[in-house]
Amino acid sequence: MHETRDIHCELLAPLQQPLLTKFYRAQRSPMRAPNGAQTWVARRQEILAALNLTPVDHGHWLTGLLVAPTERRQGLASRLIEHALARTAGPVWLFCHPDLLGFYQRQDFEPAAQLPPALAERLARYQRSKALLALARKSVTYGEA
Q: Do 80 and 61 meet the contact criterion of CB atoms below 8 Å apart?
């Protein structure tokens, strides 16, 4: 097990975006950072985990959460989510496979009562071909102040 004390979570500068693309490719993932997204990473020197927060309707859509296989099961995804969301205003929504519901509930997400229209439309399209749940950060629903 690796030491997690020497891991730093940070917002990736726009000029460093190619590093994220390289990380996703190295993990054989089709993920990428959407245009306009904030990209958060956990790293020692190299990127070990990443996620993207795309602005949507006075909140953010969390996508692209990925932890390198050698770093999994050490709390790195939880740490990165907590770090990024502590520095992000407004509600946060995400889509996940039903198998990941427990993980996200431990991160204070719950099934979304409502979604911004753009995300609701996207979820409907995605659900045509895969099982997905829409979650929101606890105590936050679309339209609340």
A: no
Contacts by residues 82-86 (CB-CB < 8 Å, ≥ 24 positions apart): 82/107, 83/9, 83/40, 83/42, 84/9, 84/11, 84/38, 84/40, 84/51, 84/53, 85/137
The amino acid that residue 145 corresponds to is: A
Q: What is the distance in angstroms between the CA of the first residue and the CA of the last residue of the chain?
A: 42
User: Where do we find the tokens 């306009």?
Assistant: 36
Are the C-beta atoms of residues 93 and 132 closer than 8 Å to each other? no
- Kind and range of the H or E run holding 39: strand 38-43
Please name each of the domains of the chain with its CATH number. Answer: 8-137 (3.40.630.30)
- Residues 132, 97: Cα–Cα separation, whole Å: 5
pLDDT at 6: 87
**8 Å CB contact between 94 and 66:** no
pLDDT band at 65 (very low <50, low <70, confident <90, very high): very high
Average pLDDT, the chain: 90
